[in-house]
Amino acid sequence: MTRVMQILFFAATGTTVNVLLHYYLWTRLVRDPRWPAPWDRVGTGVVVALALLAPLTMFAGRVVWPALGQALAWPGFVWMGTMFLLFCALVAMDALRALGLAGLKLAGRPDLLVDPERRQALAAGMAVAGAAVAGTLSTVAVRRMGEGAEVKTVEVDLPRLPRALDGLVVAQLTDIHVGSTLGKDYVQYLVDRTNGMVPDVVAITGDLVDGSPEELGDAVNELARLRARLGIYFVTGNHEYYSGVDEWLAYLRGLGIRVLRNERVTLEQDGAALDLAGIDDFNADRFGNGHGADLPRALLGRDPARELLLLAHQPRAVREAESHGVGLMLSGHTHGGQIWPWNYAVRLQQPYVEGLYQHGRSQLYVSPGTGYWGPPMRLGTRAEITRLVLKAPQT
Predict the structure, then answer these.
(1) What integer best gives the mean pLDDT of the chain?
(2) What is the 3-state secondary structure (H, E, C) of the chain?
(3) Which CATH class, in words, describes the domain spanning 149-391?
(4) pLDDT, tens digit, for every residue of 210-245?
(5) Lower CB density within 10 Å: C or N end of the chain?
């Protein structure tokens, strides 16, 4: 599939989903309650306007008129998150109504929900309750993201780690998604907090940007202030491939960040050594031009007795990592679901969603992300800067 066809397919799929979602919302919020005039027409107009907001924000604004996309970014993305929560609330209520009807049928009283007036009153109550639940949860989610990223310390025992490297600190930043609603101020904040933990290594595991260097360079330039004794490293996520990946890789190198593209470096301290490898995003081969994850290439010629850390954006790369003796893999991509209950859907694609896992002989840490994608919201999870402390065997 060519790049143009991929874009067209994505646009067609997104448009279809958007239309179906808003049609469902219209049926539950406007049609079924049968609001009196003129509120029925007002409600229909609002739903239509909101249905147009998402494509204007994501496509027309970015491609045709960037200033429009910037102006619509906050309301558009907040509505996207609210729409998801509203959809979930209404579906849950539909399920409860179906269970209630089944119970009334068993009790021999189906007339209680079949009566038109009662059905209309129930539909109106569900519409109001659904809107109240979604509005409340959206407010909580926006406030949670507004609190910024927490610094989370995670200790990881590595059996091959030399005693001289015990206590080595790796700061992981991932899925920041610098873009239309997250800019220079937030990147400054992340850099200051990361430097404050005095890390030995900084690992940026992909999905740094949503936009071109021309649009976002001023914000990303803040990463040049990152300080780590043993270096700052970056691997690609899937979003770099939507934003001009080759331009970004050159740009990051210019900021003093070491890009690992199926490569390995050796980190040394007091005569002890640790291997750090990084691979392209799991799906990078779709974009051609030499991109694509190649772990065997990254590990060619390494000493298998030496401990090995791997930076790989998507958690599903852990299956191959385990077969190649990786001690610890650092990933992101999932955002921890970002907005509950989306985390359950993430499990359909990724084997792990958030936290530290044991996968065979390997360990995997999946960060919930340091920023957000789309809606500036977090529900059921928190943005984090991960402070990984590597521990050597004590015997």
Answers:
(1) 93
(2) CCHHHHHHHHHHHHHHHHHHHHHHHHHHHHHCCCCCCCHHHHHHHHHHHHHHHHHHHHHHHHHCCHHHHHHHHHHHHHHHHHHHHHHHHHHHHHHHHHHHHHHHHHCCCCHHHHCHHHHHHHHHHHHHHHHHHHHHHHHHHHHHHHCCCEEEEEEEECCCCCHHHCCEEEEEECCCCECCCCCHHHHHHHHHHHHHCCCCEEEECCCCECCCHHHHHHHHHHHHHCCCCCCEEECCCHHHHHCCHHHHHHHHHHCCCEECCCEEEEEEECCEEEEEEECCCCCHHHHCCCCCCCHHHHHCCCCCCCCEEEECCCHHHHHHHHHCCCCEEEECCCHHHCECCHHHHHCCCCCCCCEEEEECCEEEEECCCCCCCCCCCCECCCCEEEEEEEECCCC
(3) alpha beta
(4) 999 999 999 999 999 999 999 999 999 999 999 999
(5) C
- According to DSSP, the β-strands at 272-278 and 263-269 are antiparallel
Every domain of the chain and the residues it spans: 3-145, 149-391
**pTM, whole model, 2 decimals?**
0.92
Contacts (Cβ under 8 Å, ≥6 apart) of 363? 156, 158, 327, 328, 329, 356, 357
List 386's β-bridge partners, or say none: 152, 172
Distances (CA, A) of 311 to 56, 171, 269, 282, 367: 35, 12, 20, 11, 12
Tokens representing 273 are: 């050594």
